[in-house]
Amino acid sequence: xxxxSRLYSVFFRRTSAFALTVALGAVLFERAFDQGAxxxxxxxxxGKLWKHIKHKYETQEK
Length: 62
Fold this sequence. Notes:
By secondary structure, this protein is an all-alpha fold. It has a single domain (2-56), classed as Cytochrome b-c1 complex subunit 9 (Single alpha-helices involved in coiled-coils or other helix-helix interfaces), CATH 1.20.5.260. It has three helices and no strands. It is rod-shaped, with a radius of gyration of 22 Å.
């Protein structure tokens, strides 16, 4: 119970702290969700994306 009351007093008691907590949480969630979605998309399309097959079409110039 002391942990819960400490979290409340630090993050949610004042309006400014609550707003900052919500904004920071939204930014962190968006970043994690975006990276997870990109990883999932690349895993589903492995071998089909340009970065995976470009070696077949680009020529090496000396």
